[in-house]
Design brief:
about 35% strand, globular, ten-stranded mixed β-sheet, alpha/beta
Length: about 450
């Protein structure tokens, strides 16, 4: 859909851009970069179901109600005060003992953060007009999430208030996780957080990307994260999406791994009206290892969409991928997983699995695992399942004295255990299990009150 074409829903944001840009005070170079991204967004337009990658996810609701463009101003004191209690409660719940950085509507909030500057080998820098010291763009910025190819990456590039650059220094080994909290204020606006992460040689770290919104808040969140791991670096990354059921979240996370690096990404989607997770991983050098785990739990009319692409670009790389979904009431899940093996990428080992549990007649899932293999000495497998709770197992548990509700809860908990137990740190496993079980307690069977 071309910019300026009749009926182009993207035009609302294009027209709003000058007023937004006027509040920023960007350098001419940064302003030009934003304008190039906006032009790309105008050319691409919002994705439609005519595109194969978006066939199962319709943005018609978004097209009918285009959220206003964000403001370029940092959050006001009143908003900070209102957010303080929620941040303290939710942050302590997930990562009480952690190095914390808080962002409200994409703006960094030092007064709510505990991440030390320049200590422990971790460094967070902001590229934004109000920065006291100008910061140059990090190496590789925009290479993985290209504004020229993806509409929402272009939208993010044009409207992000700032770029957060997180670096784990060479050889650093953090005892505490780094917890980044992205809170949407719920004013119905567009929110565009942008993150660039680098793990230097032989670094070891655990990172939590935690997306929240105020209760009943309504937002469109377009988040973009790029992760680069250098030789023998290891990063354990946990993405938690637990926004309100009035939030639309389009997330793009792209990674590139160096020689003998290890990357583990755990994606837990527990909130949002419509959530689309685009995850692309490039294993770019020998010995790189990738482990993807995902869990999505939907009820009501939630639409939860996960697209993954694992690119084995060189020989002797390894990837493991398992995604699980639980859907109840009228929720819909989508999983599209692609394993791509390039020519001459021999001796690779890759597995992919997607399993789904439907708890209600109205729940639905669309799953499509895929292999594209252009090398002949590889070990690859993929598969998917869709089913209901095992009636024989339910009968067995009930014969041992459990009610049907208790039996269903036990079996459902067992289904998600593999994902939750694979999380780093005992405190994080406990917190995430609690959040998942809270969500599951609302996934009621048509003839029952719930799973609790």
């Amino acid at each position: 859909m071309k910019r300026g074409s009749r009926g182009n829903p993207a035009e609302a944001w294009i027209q709003a851009f000058p007023a937004f840009a006027a509040t920023l005070g960007d350098s001419p170079e940064r302003q030009a970069q934003r304008e190039r991204a906006l032009a790309a967004f105008g050319e691409l337009g919002l994705p439609s179901t005519r595109l194969e990658a978006w066939r199962s996810t319709n943005l018609r609701t978004l097209e009918k109600r285009m959220p206003p463009a964000p403001t370029g101003h940092p959050p006001e004191a009143a908003l900070l005060e209102r957010a303080k209690t929620q941040i303290a409660l939710e942050a302590d719940r997930v990562g009480k003992a952690s190095l914390r950085a808080v962002f409200i509507d994409g703006h960094f909030c030092p007064s709510l953060s505990t991440l030390p500057e320049g200590e422990s080998g971790v460094r967070l820098l902001s590229i934004r007009p109000e920065s006291a010291t100008p910061v140059s763009f990090p190496e590789g910025y925009g290479e993985l999430a290209s504004a020229k190819l993806d509409a929402f990456s272009a939208l993010n590039e044009a409207f992000t208030p700032g770029i957060e650059v997180l670096e784990f220094g060479e050889g650093c080994e953090l005892d505490l996780p780094v917890h980044l909290i992205f809170l949407s204020s719920g004013d119905g606006r567009l929110n565009c957080p942008r993150l660039h992460i680098t793990g230097k040689k032989q670094s070891r770290a655990t990172l939590i990307l935690d997306f929240l919104s105020v209760p009943d808040g309504e937002n469109l969140v377009s988040s973009v994260t790029e992760i680069f791991l250098e030789e023998r670096a290891r990063l354990d990354c946990v993405v938690v999406e637990r926004e309100s059921d009035r939030t639309v979240h389009i997330a793009n996370l792209q990674t590139r791994q160096g020689r003998d690096s290890e990357l583990l990404i755990h994606t837990l989607t527990l909130g949002g009206a419509l959530v689309r997770n685009e995850l692309g991983a490039e294993l770019a050098d020998l010995g790189a290892e990738l482990d993807l785990k995902g869990l999505y739990v939907g009820l009501g009319d939630q639409h939860l969409d996960n697209h993954t692409r694992v690119d084995h670009a060189t020989p002797r790389t390894t990837s493991r991928e398992i995604y699980k979904g639980i859907l109840a009431e009228n929720a819909r899940g989508v999983f599209r997983g692609l394993i791509h093996v390039r020519p001459d990428a021999q001796k690779i080992d890759s597995t992919q699995s997607n399993m789904n549990l439907l708890l209600s007649p109205g729940a639905r899932v669309d799953t499509r695992p895929q292999l594209e293999i252009y090398a002949d000495d590889v070990k690859c497998s993929h598969g998917s399942t869709v089913g209901k709770l095992d009636e024989e197992a339910l009968f067995y548990l009930r014969s041992r004295g459990l009610s049907r509700t208790q039996a269903r809860a036990l079996l459902t908990r067992g289904f998600v255990a593999e994902i939750c137990e694979g999380l780093p740190l005992e405190s994080l496993r406990s917190a995430m299990t609690e959040l998942v079980l809270e969500k599951l307690s609302a996934c009621a069977h048509p003839d029952e009150e719930g799973l609790a």
